[in-house]
Design a protein that fits this description.
By secondary structure, the protein is mostly beta strands. The chain has a single domain, classed as Ribonuclease Z/Hydroxyacylglutathione hydrolase-like (Metallo-beta-lactamase, Chain A), CATH 3.60.15.10. It has three helices and 14 strands. Strands 6-7-8-9-10-11-14-12 form an eight-stranded mixed sheet, covered by helices on one side. A six-stranded mixed sheet has the order 5-4-3-2-1-13, with no helix packed on it. The chain is globular.
Length: about 210
C-alpha cells in the first residue's frame, strides 16, 4: 500500500483494490505543482476551487461528492457530512468527510473540516486507521483544534494537510502550530510518499508529515 501527497489536501492512496485520490487541485491556482497521477476513484469533499479540479487527474475515474455509504469498484466507503466552519456551515457551507477502506485499512479524509466533531459523527466514523486532517486554520481547524480531532478519532496514523508551505498562496498557517505540542518521538517526516502494510501500523497514534 502506498500514500503520496500532491500538495494541499490532495493525496493518492494506492491499494490492491485501486487508487483513490482526494480533493485534487490544479496547482496553478495555488502556486504549487499540479498533481500528476491517475485515479480509479476521486473523492471531492466540497466544490471549492482548491479541492475539485478533477480534470487535472488521469485515468477513467468515478467521482464522488455526496454523503452516504457506497461501494465503487470494490472499494467500500462512506461520506459523512460536516461543517466547513464553526457555525454549522453558515459561513462557508458543508463538506463531506470520506471514510474508505483499502487492503483492510480504514482511511478518513476530513476535507475542509471546520467544526469539532459531534458524538454522532464520531459514531458514524467508526474505527479509523489513517486520518488526513486539516491543520492550517482560517478556513478549517487550526493546530490545536486538529490535535483535539485526532484525540477524538484516535487513529493509528494522523497526517496533517491544508497548511501553508512553499509557494502556496492561501493565507493559512504552517504545520508548526499542529506539531508544536506533539511528542517528537511520535512525529515522522516521511518525504513525498510512503509504502506500508496494515500490519506495520502502530497501536498508538503516530504522525506522518509529508513534504512536497
Amino acid at each position: 500500500m502506498r500514500i503520496a501527497w500532491h500538495g494541499h489536501a490532495c493525496f493518492e492512496v494506492q491499494g490492491e483494490e485501486g487508487t483513490v485520490v482526494t480533493d485534487p487541485h490544479d496547482g496553478r491556482s495555488l502556486g504549487i505543482r499540479a498533481p500528476s497521477c491517475r485515479a480509479d476513484l476521486v473523492l471531492v469533499s466540497h466544490d471549492h476551487f482548491d479541492h475539485n479540479a478533477v480534470h487535472a487527474l488521469k485515468g477513467e475515474h468515478t467521482v464522488l461528492r455526496d454523503p452516504g455509504p457506497k461501494e465503487v469498484k470494490g472499494i467500500k466507503l462512506k461520506g459523512i457530512e460536516a461543517a466547513h466552519d464553526d457555525a454549522g456551515g453558515a459561513k462557508r457551507g458543508r463538506v463531506t468527510m470520506f471514510r474508505f477502506e483499502l487492503g483492510g485499512v480504514a482511511f478518513l479524509h476530513c476535507g475542509d473540516l471546520g467544526q469539532a466533531l459531534t458524538p454522532e459523527q464520531l459514531r458514524s466514523l467508526g474505527k479509523v486507521d489513517v486520518l488526513f486532517v486539516p491543520v492550517g486554520g482560517v478556513f478549517t481547524l487550526d493546530g490545536k483544534q486538529a490535535r483535539k480531532a485526532v484525540q477524538d478519532i484516535n487513529p493509528r496514523i494522523a497526517i496533517p494537510m491544508h497548511y501553508r508551505y512553499g509557494g502556496l498562496t492561501l493565507s493559512i498557517h504552517p504545520v508548526d502550530g499542529f506539531l508544536e505540542a506533539l511528542p517528537k518521538s511520535k512525529v515522522h517526516h516521511v518525504g513525498s510518499s510512503i509504502e506500508f502494510s496494515g500490519e506495520e501500523l502502530p497501536q498508538e497514534t503516530e504522525y506522518w508529515v509529508f513534504s512536497p
